[in-house]
């Protein structure tokens, strides 16, 4: 299994230096990363809006080691929100944030992350959009859910992410499938031990469907994060059985992956949101994309050989 090996490499400084210097890296990174600056990502948001798509924007970078870096991450999101407001794009783009970027892993990290993410959520609400808290490895989730609950007191539209491969997630889904909630379900893209997570793909898929049924039958707003055609079809069927209209849930897919499917779903009347990452600290995000699908790794390997 290459996935766990790649995920382990995502934490290696030696591998970070090697991959960053590889001749074919930029070609593949550009497939998944929309740009390095706000200015570069704005045309992508506008193009998506023209195609009937929405986006969620992720300023990449998770390896925060100082409070000053966490504050800089906060300011990067505030800069993004300011640009969206000036361009009138607030209702077409939401934000996805990883609390690790806001200092969650530092001393006093829970309070620090909450203090840093709150002004971002507040600024997003002021321009008519919202923020979704991304899920990271299982050790961070109690803190993430507590911050999510706290933010929702003032900003009830704040979303969160749950990961189907974790044993705990079915209970989390039942708790979160309440009126007013926004929950994105994904399979999961971190290296987790067998004591807390399913390791077999078939078991993960079964858990995904069970959790998705809970969300669809609940009173919240499900966000289906998947590129898997079978799971997309199952989501549509579960939505019909639950009596949901097409605007009462949405699909989310990654920028650069199955772009034709983005257009197809939007043309059918579904809300379709493209998860769009940008920024200079792309390594961790990039490695998880390679781990998720062997074809991505093969594409990367061919690019290095071609450019080498």
Q: Would you write up a description of this structure?
A:
By secondary structure, the chain is an alpha/beta fold. 53% of the residues lie in helices and 14% in strands. The chain contains 13 helices and eight strands. It has helices at residues 2-9, 13-21, 25-32, 38-50, 67-87, 109-126, 141-154, 169-176, 201-217, 229-241, 259-267, 283-292, 294-307, and strands at residues 54-59, 93-97, 131-133, 159-163, 182-186, 221-225, 250-254, 271-278. An eight-stranded parallel barrel has the order 1-2-3-4-5-6-7-8, surrounded by seven helices. Strand 4 (159-163), helix 8 (169-176) and strand 5 form a beta-alpha-beta unit. Helix 1 packs antiparallel against helix 12 (283-292), helix 6 (109-126) packs parallel to helix 7 (141-154) and helix 9 packs parallel to helix 10 (229-241). The protein is globular. 42% of the residues are buried.
| Main β sheet profile | 8 strands, parallel, barrel
Biggest sheet strand order reads: 1-2-3-4-5-6-7-8
Number of strands: 8
Gross morphology = globular
Topology:
Elements: H1 2-9, H2 13-21, H3 25-32, H4 38-50, E1 54-59, H5 67-87, E2 93-97, H6 109-126, E3 131-133, H7 141-154, E4 159-163, H8 169-176, E5 182-186, H9 201-217, E6 221-225, H10 229-241, E7 250-254, H11 259-267, E8 271-278, H12 283-292, H13 294-307
Parallel strand pairs: 1-2, 1-8, 2-3, 3-4, 4-5, 5-6, 6-7, 7-8
Helix pairs in contact: 1-12, 5-6, 6-7, 8-9, 9-10, 12-13
């Amino acid at each position: 299994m290459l996935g766990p090996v790649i995920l382990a490499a995502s934490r290696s400084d030696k591998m970070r230096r090697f991959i960053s210097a590889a001749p074919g890296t930029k070609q593949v990174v550009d497939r998944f990363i929309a740009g390095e600056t706000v200015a570069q990502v704005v045309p992508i948001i506008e193009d998506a809006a023209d195609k009937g798509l929405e986006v969620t924007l992720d300023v990449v970078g998770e390896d925060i080691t100082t409070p000053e870096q966490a504050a800089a991450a906060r300011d990067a999101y505030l800069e993004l929100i300011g640009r969206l407001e000036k361009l009138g794009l607030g209702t077409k783009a939401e934000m996805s944030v990883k609390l690790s970027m806001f200092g969650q892993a530092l001393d006093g990290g829970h309070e620090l992350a909450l203090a840093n993410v709150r002004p971002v959520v507040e600024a997003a609400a002021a321009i008519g959009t919202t923020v979704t808290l991304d899920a990271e490895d299982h050790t961070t989730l109690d803190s993430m859910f507590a911050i999510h609950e706290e933010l929702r007191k003032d900003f009830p539209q704040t979303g969160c992410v749950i990961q189907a491969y974790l044993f705990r997630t079915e209970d989390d889904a039942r708790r979160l499938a309440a009126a007013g909630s926004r929950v994105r379900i994904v399979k999961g893209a971190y290296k987790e031990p067998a004591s807390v997570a399913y390791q077999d793909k078939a078991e993960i898929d079964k858990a995904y469907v069970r959790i998705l049924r809970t969300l669809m039958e609940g009173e919240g707003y499900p966000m289906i994060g998947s590129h898997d055609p079978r799971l997309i079809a199952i989501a549509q069927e579960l939505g019909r059985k639950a009596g949901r209209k097409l605007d009462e849930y949405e699909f989310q897919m990654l920028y650069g992956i199955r772009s034709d499917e983005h257009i197809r779903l939007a043309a059918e009347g579904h809300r379709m949101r493209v998860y769009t990452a940008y920024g200079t600290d792309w390594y961790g995000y990039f490695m998880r994309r390679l781990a998720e699908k062997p074809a991505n790794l093969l594409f990367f390997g061919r690019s290095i050989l071609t450019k080498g």
